Every structure is written in C-alpha cells, then in structure tokens.
Amino acid sequence: MIIKEALDIIKNAEGLKLKAYKDPAGIWTIGYGHIRNVKQGDVCTEEQADKWLREDIGEAVRAVDVLVNVPLTQQQYGALVSFTFNLGYGTLKNSSLLTALNKFDYKTASEKFLLYNKAGGKVLPGLVLRRKAERELFDTDPNEYTLIQYATSAKNVRDIESVKRLQEFLKSNGTYTGKIDGIPGRMTSDAMERTFGFRLKGE
Question: HSE (CB half, 13 Å, CA atoms) of 30?
C-alpha cells in the first residue's frame, strides 16, 4: 500500500492533464504521466487519471519489493516508490542510494536522494524539489529507536556496523552490558529480546 504522502509527491511532480499531450520526448501522455495506449485527442476524468496512476505505480512497487533487502517504514517505502516511478528500475538497481540502504545505512541512503536531480546532464528545478520532498518523506521519523526496530525486525542482522549501532543503542537503554564489537552473540540477543521481543537467528 502506498501512503497518501507518496502519491501526493508523484501527483504534484507529474501534474494532472485531462487531455492528451506530447511530453518532451514526443510521447502522447495523459493524466499523471500515463502513456500506455494514449493517442492524440484522448481525454480522461480525474478519477480515471487516479486509476491509471495506481496501475502505473505497480512497476515501481515491484522494483522496490525486489531490490530492497532491508525493512522499511511506510514513509521510506513510499519515498522509494516515488523515486523509482520517476527514474525507473535500472536507476534504482544501480544507485548509490540502494547500495547504502541495503547495508542498513539509512542515513546515507537519505542523503543520496538529492544526487538524482539531473536530466540530460542538467540540474532541473523540478527534480530538485521532487528529490527534496522524497527525502523529507523518507526521513519522516528519523528516531533512532524506530530505525533500529525496523532494521532488526528481520531477526538476522549480520552487518558489523549495523550490529554495532544496535549494541550502542541497547547499551544506551541499559539492556546491554557487553562490548561494542559488532558480533551478534548471546548478550546482544538477550538484550534484543528484552527490548524488541525477539532474538537474532543463529547467535
């Protein structure tokens, strides 16, 4: 499910056109950037444009589902769907944003949104605003507890830096007394169980 805030970013960026027009690439387009089976003279209602948008978003949703290997908040998920809807599967797959995100580095992933603001090698004001909005949505709840709760909900964190972050947090709330060494051993799992209600697998 895509939250309203993500849909609003897409709608504001794409703009609503109820009559078919040619986009900058010469492709007949209508609604919120819908291009499938569109021809000159086509018209639509706002309701039809909404329906097409939700259908078109499906490809971006599938891309995020396939390529992202870490847990996401609804806000993070929505921001990534908007990003991918605009830039495509290939851009997300090869992006430094995805590389950072799949290492549980949510902070760096957030920063990377702002790099994708060009078309044809030129910075476009519309893309600058869109990336800023997506990043703000991605960061809606930057609370460290929330991020760690999502990052560890898969129960199998093994990245050393992520485990260190987890241990630092657990030590700060008094549930972990061991070393900050990035090794997800029994003491880390005991503290996780007290805090989150589950243990790391294979500890």
Answer: 19
Number of H helices, E strands in the chain: 10, 4
pLDDT tens per residue across span 55-111: 999 999 999 999 998 778 889 999 999 999 999 999 999 999 999 988 878 889 999
The model carries a pTM of 0.72
**DSSP readout, 113-174?**
GGG--EETTEE-HHHHHHHHHHHHHHTS---HHHHHHHHHTTS----HHHHHHHHHHHHHTT
The active-site residue out of 14, 46, 134, 136 is 14
Domains of the chain: total: 2
14 falls within a domain: yes
Q: What is the token pair recorded at 101? A: 């995100």
Tens of pLDDT, residue by residue over 22-47, are 987 788 999 999 999 999 999 999 99
Among 111, 138, 165, the domain-final residue is 138
Closest CA to 152 of 186, 197, 86, 91: 197
Judge whether 168 counts as a catalytic residue.
Answer: no
Instruction: Examine residue 68 and state whether it is found in any structural domain, yes or no.
Output: yes
| Same structural domain, 150 and 130 | no
